Amino acid sequence: MSSLETFLLKYKQSFYKxxxxxxxxxxxxxxxxxxxxxxxxxxxxxxxxxxxxxxxEVLQQSERIDAxxxxxxxxxxDVCLERGLxxxxxxxxxxxxxxxxxxxxxxxxxxxxxxxxxxxxxxxxLSRVVKPGGIIVITTIPMHKRLFxxxxxxxxxxxxxxxxxxxxxxxxxxxxPTVRELPPLVEEFIWLRRPxxxxxxxxxxxxxxxxxxxxxxxxxxxxxxKYWNFNGYIMALRNKK
Length: 241
What we know:
Elements: H1 3-23, H2 27-38, E1 44-48, H3 54-59, E2 66-71, H4 74-82, E3 87-89, E4 102-108, H5 116-129, E5 130-140, H6 159-164, E6 185-192, H7 206-221, E7 233-239
Parallel strand pairs: 1-2, 1-4, 2-3, 4-5
Antiparallel strand pairs: 5-7, 6-7
């Protein structure tokens, strides 16, 4: 095969791949689109647990945003660096950046890998590195049948669990918060990810799993969703420190 033929083949594959993603976006693509809009007033954004850099590439669509990432997996960091992304090795429970250094923080599908005490530490770290008045955007999942498909997941955090971290004791005697001394964060926005009407979750092999994902994406395109339920969410918290 000539170099020209090789180039045309790669271009064709790239074109069809990008066209497919625009027509049938995945759950993660949809989440990225929602989260991106929340950072439009930010000059500098940190993606904590950035993985292979999917959302960092989305942030680069804006020339005004300086996008920075951190991940604890050296392989993910290497992939990001190969893609030209500004990413460093770091633990979400001990973020390698000074306090008050970012206008916005993104933390996607990280919280569910931690037990409750660690999740509280995570929130404290996110609050430490964001500036006063900055925004923290968290994406995570409630309990549903796909929860433990990822071997790293430990427990779900439905919205009320996250809100409960900021609960205050009340004279009515019914409010008994167990978390104390978290920074003052105020919920500003929540988006609920509605599952496909028929959730095809084939576990026989990778090929069948991919077929199920495709069928779910097609349902999303035709708005065939369970609007009375959700299997993930995005919550935006404003730092009031």
